[in-house]
Amino acid sequence: MSEPGAAGPSPAAIQVSRIMRPDDANIAGNVHGGTILKMIEEAGAIISTRHCNSQAGEPCVAALARVERTDFLSPMCIGEVANVSAEITYTSRHSVEVQVNVMSENILTGAKKVTNKATLWYVPLSLKNVNKVLEVPPIQYARKEQEDEGKKRYEEQKLDRLETKQRNGDVILPVINPDRQTKEPHTVGYSQSSLIHLVGPSDCTLLGFVHGGVTMKLMDEVAGIVAARHCKTNIVTASVDAINFHEKIKKGCVITVSGRMTFTSNKSMEIEVFVDADPFVDEPRERYRAVSAFFTYVSLSKEGKPLPVPQLLTETEDEKRRFEEGKGRYLQTKAKRQAQMQQAAQQ
């Protein structure tokens, strides 16, 4: 191990590979976005925990704090191998930035394609005191520009986390067995869905708190149910906006994962997902908001071609407000993507 405080070389990138099984996919054979998100988080947790324990000091586990916007560039299918590679690209005093690439491989033909690129942020928590955030060993940068760019990304995500926390008081009442016969199709209430899950040991880290990947997989499941109820077609995850982990979820908690449609364009739909935790074991306290995010889905035909998405029917003022906010996010993302394409064409 290195001496504390000394900058060490950038940790070697790691790769995690696994063949996709039928239980990883939907009925059309497309791998669930949540399955891929879980693999991404596992790779990030391994490399960041390894790095945070590379110097002498208190042993720790890296906990997921945030996932930046993640686009699903192409679908992955049953029988393909998911190759997930992760590397540390920036460290601040108390956080680690990990960049992850996912490539699908057809092991019969050897064909490969990039399916995902993601950026995750972790914080090291002491094994002795879970509420104690430890210092992160600094890394060496090949160029000063790399450190400056990393610091800029760190400040941007820090600001966004604060803004998200301020608007995080919204409430979704759990919908377990709603009478959908009384609701108009394509309304928010018709597709709104919830899932309740008891957090067990297999869901948790060494510290007894839920793996971020487990939470993201449950969120994707609920968002997928909302999208399928709205379209009644095969649906796949297109992207996930930044996911902020506001508070840890402890073993023994009952979590309620709730999703509702907020916006539809001609070919996509935005679903807002909240995770609320009810602690029942050891530390009784009131329900609290643990995680929140926006998922974007697209509707596909049996041949895998994009289908038009039915327009969301808004009924209340809050639904209309959320629709306009979602439209703003959609247009902003669209403009950013067009700017990136123009920039790439000029290079």
From TrEMBL:
Residues 318-328 have a biased composition (Basic and acidic residues). Its EC number is 3.1.2.2. GO terms for biological process: acyl-CoA metabolic process; fatty acid catabolic process. The active site is at N26, D220. GO terms for cellular component: cytosol. It is an enzyme of class 3 (hydrolase). Residues 10-128, 189-303 form the HotDog ACOT-type domain. Keywords: Cytoplasm, Hydrolase, Lipid metabolism, Repeat, Serine esterase. It is found in: Cytoplasm. Transmembrane segments: none annotated. InterPro entries: Cytosol_ACT, HOTDOG_ACOT, HotDog_dom_sf, Thioestr_dom. This is palmitoyl-CoA hydrolase. It comes from Lonchura striata.
